[in-house]
C-alpha cells in the first residue's frame, strides 16, 4: 500500500466545491511537487492530508491511518505528517530550541533532556546548530524556515508537507531552504510540496501533480510532464511561470 492514499476526496467550503474527486497515491520516498494556479485547491489538499480541514466525501489514509479531524486522530496524525507553511509560524516568544522541543514534549511526552537532544540534532541537520538559544526575530527568513523544518523533523514524520515554503523569502534566501529539502529527499524522506520552483520540481522531484479547478488535471514523471505537457491548461501554466 502507498504511504499516502487519497480516494475520491471531495471538499466543500459551504457551497464552494474546492476538491472535486481527488485520487492520489504517493509512495514512501517519493518527492511530489503540486503545482497549479492560485485558487486551484493546492493548500486545501495539503490541509486535508494533515487533518487541518475536514473533507466531505472519499477517504485519505496516511501510513495506514485514516485521516479525520477528530481530536485524538489529529494528535496521532501529527506523528506521521509534518507540515511547514509559507510564513514559518514559529512562536516568537520562545527560543529556537523551545520551539522545536514543544511538540516532542507535549505530544510525544518525551522527557526534557530527550526533547533537547532531538532538537539539537535536528538543528544541526538544517545547519543551524548554533542558534538553539536565539529568538526567531533574530534570524533571517531562510533561517526561520529552516528552524520550521527542524521543528517538523523533531516529530519524526513519515511524510513532510510543504506549502509554498519559499514563497515569502527574499530570492537570495530560497536556495538554502531548497538545499535542506534536497538533502532530506536524498535521505529518503517522503515530500509533498506545493511550489513554484520548477527547477527544483524537475531536478529533485520525482513526480509533478498539476491541479486545476479542484482536480488533478495532469500528473506524471516531473521531467516528462514539465517538458511535454499534454493539456492546454498545463501548457498555459508552465508558460506563465517559466
Ligand atoms: P491554492 O492553494 O491552490 O491557491 P486554496 O486551496 O487555498 O488554493 O483555495 C481553493 C479555493 O478554496 C479558493 O477558491 C479559495 O478562495 C477557497 N478557500 C480556501 N480556504 C477557504 C476557507 N477557509 N473558506 C472558504 N473558502 C476557502
Ligand atoms: Mg495555497
Automatic annotation (TrEMBL):
Keyword Isomerase: no
Residue ranges constituting the ABC transporter domain according to the UniProt record: 4-238
One Gene Ontology term, aspect cellular component: plasma membrane
A Pfam family it matches: ABC_tran
A GO term, aspect molecular function: ATP binding
Subcellular location: Cell inner membrane
Keyword entries, A-Z: Amino-acid transport, ATP-binding, Cell membrane, Membrane, Nucleotide-binding, Transport
Lipid bilayer topology: Peripheral membrane protein
Domain of life where this protein originates: Bacteria
Family statement drawn from the similarity comment of this UniProt entry: Belongs to the ABC transporter superfamily.
Protein name, as recorded: Amino acid ABC transporter ATP-binding protein
Source organism per UniProt: Marinomonas ushuaiensis DSM 15871
Amino acid at each position: 500500500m502507498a504511504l499516502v492514499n487519497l480516494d475520491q476526496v471531495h471538499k466543500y467550503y459551504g457551497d464552494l466545491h474546492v476538491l472535486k474527486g481527488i485520487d492520489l497515491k504517493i509512495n514512501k520516498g517519493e518527492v511530489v511537487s503540486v503545482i497549479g494556479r492560485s485558487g486551484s485547491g493546492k493548500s486545501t489538499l495539503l490541509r486535508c492530508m494533515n487533518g487541518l480541514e475536514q473533507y466531505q466525501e472519499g477517504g485519505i489514509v496516511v501510513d495506514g491511518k485514516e485521516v479525520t479531524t477528530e481530536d485524538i486522530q489529529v494528535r496521532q496524525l501529527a506523528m506521521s505528517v509534518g507540515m511547514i507553511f509559507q510564513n514559518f509560524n514559529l512562536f516568537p516568544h520562545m527560543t529556537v530550541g523551545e520551539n522545536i522541543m514543544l511538540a516532542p514534549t507535549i505530544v510525544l511526552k518525551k522527557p526534557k533532556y530527550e526533547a533537547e537532544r532531538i532538537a539539537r540534532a535536528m538543528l544541526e541537520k538544517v545547519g543551524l546548530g548554533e542558534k538553539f538559544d536565539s529568538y526567531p526575530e533574530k534570524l533571517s527568513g531562510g533561517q526561520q524556515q529552516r528552524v520550521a523544518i527542524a521543528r517538523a523533523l523533531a516529530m519524526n514524520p513519515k511524510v513532510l508537507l510543504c506549502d509554498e515554503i519559499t514563497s515569502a523569502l527574499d530570492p537570495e534566501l530560497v536556495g538554502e531552504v531548497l538545499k535542506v529539502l534536497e538533502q532530506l529527499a536524498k535521505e529518503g524522506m517522503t515530500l509533498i510540496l506545493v511550489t513554484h520552483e520548477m527547477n527544483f520540481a524537475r531536478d529533485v522531484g520525482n513526480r509533478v501533480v498539476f491541479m486545476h479547478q479542484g482536480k488533478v488535471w495532469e500528473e506524471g514523471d516531473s521531467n516528462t510532464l514539465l517538458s511535454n505537457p499534454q493539456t492546454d491548461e498545463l501548457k498555459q501554466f508552465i508558460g506563465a511561470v517559466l
